[in-house]
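hey so i finally got around to running the thing on that chain from the lab meeting. sorry it took forever, my laptop kept dying and i had to restart like 3 times. anyway pasting the input first so we r on the same page abt which one it is
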Amino acid sequence: MRSTVPGPEAIGGRLARRPIAPPGRALTWLWRPRGFAERRLAFLALIALPALLYVLLVAVWPIAQGVYYSFFDYNLLRPAARSFAGLDNYRAIWEDETNRRAVLNTLVFTAAAVGLELLFGLALALLLWPDGRFNRVATALMLVPITITPLAVGLLFRALLNADFGLIGYWARVAGISGPHGFLGDPASALGALVLIDAWEWTPLMALILLAGLKTLPQELIEAAEVDGATYLQRLRLVALPMMLPSIFLALVLRGMDAFRVFDIVFATTKGGPNDATTVLMIQAVKQGLEFFDIGAAAAIANLMIVAIAVMALVFTRLIRHADQKVAAG
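ok and heres what got predicted. didnt touch it at all, straight out
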């Protein structure tokens, strides 16, 4: 009986006829996408890889470091004495009077500035709603404040509101409208002045977002309401505003997140004074980190702001989604 097991010669000849791929080519063949969808996915992944690495290095890694340092008593004046502090830096935010004042000032500034910008922005959007040459020119000119950096706006208004030589501040002091130190030098009026400065710069942005929402409204519904005898205010309240809720919430979330982390105009005008009347969370974080070199306290304040902005964005996103569904349902 003949053996069916191939001998060494047969095996050697078969192996000799089949070329052995180098290890690098073998791995390439194993990981090479087979179909068009897999090749497209691999191409998109390679295209997105530099951006992903940039985000990890510039955004994710600093945030992770900030979270890590917030649990430590870490001061750059004594770096070797770094010790684990747990939640002490977060408790200090509520126990320290200056930190509590910064939280209150931030909330008041955000609510007042965004509310004022929404009110004036809606009024401007309604005025610019009809098509016309004048309205188009006015819309273009309205973009001028947005193009100026907030730091430059702060320096401009610090000069205008100066009680000694400012074009506004001097005459306001002479007329008795402001105190001897001007609007920015009085603790009772400094935060309100910053709210008005912020509203001057960012009301046009709010108006443009709301104007875009008005332009997308179906004119048939508004004309039908007019034919039915509805007044202008009734058409606005019952027809236009309910359909504009997604645009309104979008404007609120954009301006709310930006106003909550205000820094430029405060730093350029008052630097948090007088008597901490305009100290906001961002100013307090910068003071803790760059003046007192308390990295742990500064990181805790920054993390609190990140959480607050994330919660704000989540709430407004849900409101926008609910408003979209309500508008779609009719």
